[in-house]
Design goal:
Strand content: 5-15%
Number of helices: 16
Low-confidence stretches: 5-41, 47-62, 428-465
Order of helices and strands: HHEHEEEHHEEHEHEHHEHHEHHEEEHEHH
Mean pLDDT: 82
Number of strands: 14
Helix content: 25-40%
Structural class: alpha/beta
Shape: globular
């Protein structure tokens, strides 16, 4: 996702997802309306956080969401409890109300997990620290929310143990290849550990592992929700592995099209990714007994997400699968940043009752954004009704503060947040309902092939050109 690429103020009274259908028809072209009408019953989930009158009981900040992504790379933060406590305290005094700590990256976790190995550096220096739980407790003491960020989603290093032990879980191209060169890697020269593969979201083993990895974090740390990003995806050129071919034959009676951008074939694969999102949403809803756990999504711009990664985040937001959108906008120039703010899906998102924030690059490596540019971008986003989420912690006033220096940047962020969002942006205490009403969960989707019946094929919707 964020390795260097956007969101609206929360509505106080969002309508329940299915009740919005009539209103949505007035907003969408006829062809897309037909798609939404046909698929919303599959994706929509009656929200446990909605009161009977339709008023959301999800917590609303006194201002808008101001957040930051935290990660171990490149940063020493995760390996020192004192650094964690100090960083959270600094964020709290600078107007931040949300932290997105990376919990799933490069095939490893930052806790002892049933599903993946412990991150090597943490295992070596402080295996008992559990930085995600430490960040959560520190942040919640300051009235902040914590949404652990599952950065890698369905992506794995090419040499990961889960890939070696379960080759049938890996998505493949028509020529049988599976490797991707991400984040500056090279297919010809990079070692296998620096290349990536995608696991199959339609495979029952992948689904069980993916949801299990998320649930153990949620249940262990008492977090406020979770975040997925653009790696929770099905790359459009993948899907020619044996399992997907079998599933497609059983549900359609024919072989997958040779053209990976065949419209029905894209729709079929997108359907299975949406089904996994829906299953995760239901499990989270079943697990929480005292509050609605938020699902945040941080995708790229809609057209590329929809066409290249088979993420239909517009449908997910309208169907109640996503509670919060953070759309990445890492354009360096103001012209590019403004153009990305004008994308049609982002403008329409204001009507969905889903808070939408803009992902802004603060600094990474040699690319530190100066405070004047950050201020211009934040003020523009705020004027459009959006909150902001920065990538990443060390780019604020840490390791990548650049020539402006840490003290100057921290004071400027504090002043900027007060000017753009108001003097107080913390989450009000006691805003969660003490109990939730009966959960009106929809029937579970039929199991995938291998566990019983096959999922029915979806209707072939029109796609954006």
């Amino acid at each position: 996702m964020h390795r260097p690429g956007p969101a609206g103020g929360p509505s106080a009274n969002p309508a329940p997802p299915l009740a919005r259908r009539a209103y949505l028809k007035r907003l969408l072209p006829v062809s897309l309306t037909l798609l939404v009408t046909s698929l919303l019953p599959m994706v929509a989930i009656p929200a446990a956080g909605l009161a009977k009158d339709g008023v959301s009981t999800l917590p609303q900040p006194r201002g808008r969401r101001i957040g930051v992504w935290m990660t171990n790379s490149p940063s020493p933060l995760y390996y020192d409890s004192k650094r964690i406590d100090a960083a959270v305290a600094e964020l709290a005094t600078t107007g931040f109300n949300t932290i997105y700590p990376n919990v799933w990256s490069r095939g490893a976790t930052f806790h002892r997990s049933r599903y993946a190995p412990l991150e090597p550096t943490l295992a070596a220096v402080n295996p008992n620290l559990d930085p995600i739980c430490r960040i959560t407790k520190a942040a919640q003491r300051h009235g902040m929310q914590v949404l652990p960020w599952f950065e890698y989603g369905l992506m794995e290093p090419g040499d990961a143990e889960v890939v070696r032990l379960n080759p049938d879980w890996v998505l493949r191209r028509a020529d049988g290849s599976a490797l991707y060169a991400m984040h500056g890697a090279d297919l010809r020269t990079s070692p296998l550990k620096d290349l990536r593969v995608w696991l199959n979201p339609a495979h029952p083993g992948v689904r069980q592992r993916f949801i299990g990895l998320i649930m153990e974090t949620v249940q262990r740390c008492g977090v406020d929700g979770i975040q997925l990003d653009d790696h929770f995806a099905w790359p459009v050129d993948l899907g020619y592995d044996n399992y997907t071919r079998m599933l497609y034959r059983q549900t359609t009676g024919r072989e997958p099209p040779a053209n990976p951008k065949d419209r029905y074939w894209m729709s079929w694969r997108r359907y299975h990714l949406t089904s996994l999102m829906r299953e995760l949403r239901i499990r989270l809803q079943q697990t929480s007994t005292s509050k609605r756990l938020l699902v945040s999504l941080s995708p790229g711009p809609y057209r590329s997400a929809f066409n290249e990664w088979l993420q239909d985040w517009e449908l997910w937001a309208m169907g109640g699968l996503v509670d919060d959108l953070v759309v990445q906008n890492y354009a360096f120039s103001m012209e590019g940043f403004t153009n990305d703010l004008n994308q049609a899906a982002l403008i329409k998102a204001r009507s969905w009752g889903v808070p939408v924030e803009i992902g802004v690059l603060a600094g990474l490596g040699a690319r530190t954004t100066d405070m004047d540019t950050i201020a211009e971008k934040v003020q523009l986003a705020a004027s459009r009704g959006h909150g902001v989420i920065y990538f990443f912690w060390e780019g604020l006033w840490g390791k990548y503060a650049g020539s402006e220096g840490a003290a100057y940047r921290q004071s400027q962020f504090n002043a900027l947040h007060r000017a753009a969002f108001g003097t107080t942006n913390s989450w009000p205490a006691g805003n969660w309902p003490s109990t939730l009403g009966p959960r009106r969960l929809p029937p579970s989707p039929p199991p995938a092939v291998g566990l019983g019946r096959a999922l029915p094929p979806p209707p072939p919707p029109p796609l954006p050109e």
